[in-house]
Fold this sequence. Notes:
The protein is an alpha/beta fold. It folds into 2 domains: 3-173 and 365-395, Glycogen Phosphorylase B (Rossmann fold); 176-362, 3-Layer(aba) Sandwich (Rossmann fold). The chain contains 18 helices and 13 strands. The chain has helices at residues 22-36, 72-75, 77-93, 106-112, 133-137, 152-156, 160-164, 180-187, 209-219, 235-240, 245-249, 251-260, 277-285, 302-309, 322-325, 341-347, 353-363, 366-382, and strands at residues 3-8, 39-45, 55-58, 98-101, 121-124, 145-149, 166-169, 197-200, 223-226, 269-271, 289-292, 314-317, 332-335. The strands form 2 sheets. The protein has a 7-stranded parallel β-sheet with strand order 3-2-1-4-5-6-7, sandwiched between helices. Strands 10-9-8-11-12-13 form a 6-stranded parallel β-sheet, with helices on both faces. It starts with a strand and ends in a 16-residue tail after the last helix. It comes from Plantactinospora sonchi. One of its GO terms (molecular function) is glycosyltransferase activity.
Amino acid sequence: xxxxxxxxxxxxxxxxxxxxxxxxxxxxxxxxxxxxxxxxxxxxxxxxxxxxxxxxxxxxxxxxxxxxxxxxxxxxxxxxxxxxxxxxxxxxxxxxxxxxxxxxxxxxxxxxxxxxxxxxxxxxxxxxxxxxxxxxxxxxxxxxxxxxxxxxxxxxxxxxxxxxxxxxxxxxxxxxxxxxxxxxxxxxxxxxxxxxxxxxxxxxxxxxxxxxxxxxxxxxxxxxxxxxxxxxxxxxxxxxxxxxxxxxxxxxxxxxxxxxxxxxxxxxxxxxxxxxxxxxxxxxxxxxxxxxxxxxxxxxxxxxxxxxxxxxxxxxxxxxxxxxxxxxxxxxxxxxxxxxxxxxxxxxxxxxxxxxxxxxxxxxxxxxxxxxxxxxxxxxxxxxxxxxxxxxxxxxxx
Length: 398
């Protein structure tokens, strides 16, 4: 395939990220498969990114995520500096066939403003589409800029202007899904499961770690919370910021201190900070359940597909994408009642880890995701939009 795509990951974290980084992990999963399929990839990122690509485009040496906590007048130029470089590369290079953008709000607005002679754009929506109502509610990308969701439920909640520009959704993928069944057997399958339940993800009200911690004490199961609190990746970092007014103003830090920390006793409930790589895989693979006590409509669910790929059943509230990703009674258990989650944790022992791994290998591999995106690329490049009711097959990879 003769196709050059500028994949714009943004200036916030390297690709792949060193720890937490949902969008950057997805880009790191997608790009190698695109290149395997013959796509030439120009990656818009930071210079510390180590993902092999055909060309790296970077303004900043390191990820700028930590600067998001600064006042707006100190941080507002970061994403604009990055996007300025992207626009110059698109305008001056002459070889970009399509831009696949992953930068929230600013990427969509900037690339749509380039005019009709610029390359087509596919902008992937990774986040809550209730945000930015003025942008999303009135968006007009003409026939050149399209969007895709990361789940059908996400797009169903989108403003009409975004739905009118949508070419469908592509579920997220994980390299862990490749040969998932064999790797589960190598780990010892169900026999290798421990006693702990894990909640993996950024600690904030939408993820519901306070509910998980309360239920752990009430129902008597051991709970491990893994993920950052605001910009603080490890417990020692957050402890060092105890008297920092910037930390105190962070809403995730306030949530942690007021709603979660009172339950964290180091025995029944532990917080271990961000885990990555083999440590994360071992933590999830040895858990008897991955718990998702969601209080928001999760758009994509990276941690869900990772858990299934590692042979760990998912228990959660049936919010957002979870009913699309989890087969109730087969790869996990879902409910709409917070108080029944603890019962489902105990019942999840009836779920066969081999079914979780098999479903992940069928639906959530990088190859499945890349093939779906190639179909979207061709659709974006070729013609007028279809309505969502007309989009079928690999465009909606349920």
